[in-house]
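Record pair follows.
FIRST:
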Amino acid sequence: MLLGTAHLHAQAAPDGKQAASTPLSPERVPASPDEKPTSWWNNFRDPEDGALDMSRWLLQHKGALLVPIIITEPAVGNGGGLAAVFFQAPKQSEASKESGLRIPPNIYGAAAFKTENGTWGYGLGGSFHFKDDRWRYAGAVGKINVNLDYYTQGLRLAPRKIGYNLDGIFSYQKVSRRLGNSDLFLSVRWIYMDLDSRLNLSSNDQYFQPRDFAHRASGLGLGLDYDSRDNTLTPSKGWLWRLEATPYSPAFGSDNTFQSYRAHAYGYFPLGRDWVLGTRADYRSARGDVPFYQQPSIDLRGIAYGRYQDQNVGVLEAELRWNFRPRWALLGFGGAGKAWGRTLDFGDASTHTAEGVGFRYLISRTLGLYAGLDWAWSEGDHAYYIQVGSAWR
């Protein structure tokens, strides 16, 4: 939810292949567990080039990747936190190994953050692979107390910014099954939130209906994924597309009845040896008695969370990465989005843009994992993001 939060993505590619985004081959087999480093610091160096690399620490010694969280979201003020992330090689049969299938690692961890306006939260989660990647599980649970802003669209009165607070718990649970030997996965997911929503000023109640303040939202949905990316952490080629539909109903424990939908596609295209172009198309929609804080919002680096919300949101974004050194990369990105449905048709809705620049360092050659920093800006806002893996989620 918060701009500036570090992101780590753990969805696994069905073919198990690793990234080819750098001249350094990420397909190198990790050093033998019996190999004794000459010093503790050697756990963080690559024996091939002597550069800083956390592959041995993360995979052999089961150490944590500590990710600082930087928050520069205008709605919640500056803040920070810390995430501890662990990687583990999943079990794999000999037959699967002989077939050449490389299963991405299981990833799990915990995080906590706080900002200057009293916003705070903590949680834990992970992504795991079973039965030679025939089955996948992803889940997260947490507690939040968030102070944000909601923007009215001026249907009856002039548009205005309304401060509100969300306090409660959330849970996300997803199980996926591969369809045959294809790159397709069918998934079932359960989303549960029990949040007390309160406006900072009671005089702003006039802009809402009682159903907008529902405490519990519980949805049970289906999804279909296609994933041909060469690496799920920092892809350099291939596609990820996903279709999701989630109905919320009292039958599932929800106070309100509504539906949420999402369709998105990410494409990655190598341009020669050192350049990678990433493209993203993302559509989100909600229908029914949707709590105001669950309406879709334009999701672009540089645009404050919740700044543009409506029944429908569409986003297009591109990112160009230049691997100018074996372990270092520069990137530029930009995108545009629209929010429409309640008071404006698509053609009448304004287009909002954001752009930015960043850098990346190959922090784990074995995992093909890059980490770095982005700076993004839009119409009057800007934010910094620590990124671990792809920024798209």
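SECOND:
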Amino acid sequence: MAYLTLNRTKLKANFEHLKAMFEDSDISWGVVSKLLCGNRKFLEELINLGVKEIHDSRISNLEKIKEINSEIQTVYVKPVSKRNIAKMVKYADVSLNSELTTIKWISEESVKQGKTHKIIIMVETGDLREGVMGDHLLEFYAQIFELPNIEIIGLGTNLNCLNGVMPSTDKLIQLSLYKQIIELKFNKKIPWVSAGTSVTIPLMLHKQLPKGINHFRVGETLYFGVDLFEEKIIDGMHGDVFELNAEIIEMQEKPLLPSGTFAANPQGEIIEIDQQLYGKSSFRAILDIGLLDVDPKYLIPEDGEFEILGASSDMLILNLGTNPKEYKVGDIIKFNLKYMGALGILNSSYVDKVISE
């Protein structure tokens, strides 16, 4: 059976690297845990690092975090649906919001539960996912800042999550200016300007982050050590916190080309035939993982000498050529993962999850 490992030593090294970086810049930050898909063992590893604030997009995951350590500040990172407001207020200390009606409902529920719920108002800065338009921000704030049991603790934004719009110094300066305008007009203090996610870290690395930005929500760079501007591993960090291990369940020499009458495969693809490959063969390995668990395009083979040919729902097919390393049935093939690959596997109940040192 395929299994996924989380290397606690490398995770800790990445966490300490980020912690030192943010402390040097006097920036608060929280860890986004949604990649872990509520896996309790992995959440415990995260909490054991000394994380004080965890963000997630699933209320059930925030509930698990509170069960493990009720002192963690939990943050719900997407607009909440009406039917889930009661649970969200119960398990999330903070939420990101951009709808006036929803915040009023949250206020009403917070009164019922006898809690003060903290809000980060999300502001649209160009990527066109969630966020209040800047022209409407003052009016929006005016309608919510005195709602009972609601505390506005920040302005935030999301970039690069939908249309690929990258953060820039100018966009983040604008966000900081919104904070200053609101504080002057309403004589209210807004503690945080939450600049975004891992994609904003390169601005800090290159000394291009405006001084007003003082809060981050970080997931991908923690788990993959990646600079998302240059798509490379940040010096001193690890890109292989996660590793997929898949077992060879068949190993045979077969023709390079299929034969017979062709139609679309289950993925709706028509296979293109390279006439030059007729009569040639190679060793093909079948692994015990498939599309149900992960899209092959998100897999990075640690052994770069073979080719991923494709996958069906439950099996991954490799072209090993002449099989120079003499792989055999029962051997384990290792892969590093891109973010979406790790997300698919972590969300699969068919792949075991293991801690490694």
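COMMENT: The CA atoms of residues 59 and 88 lie 6 Å apart.
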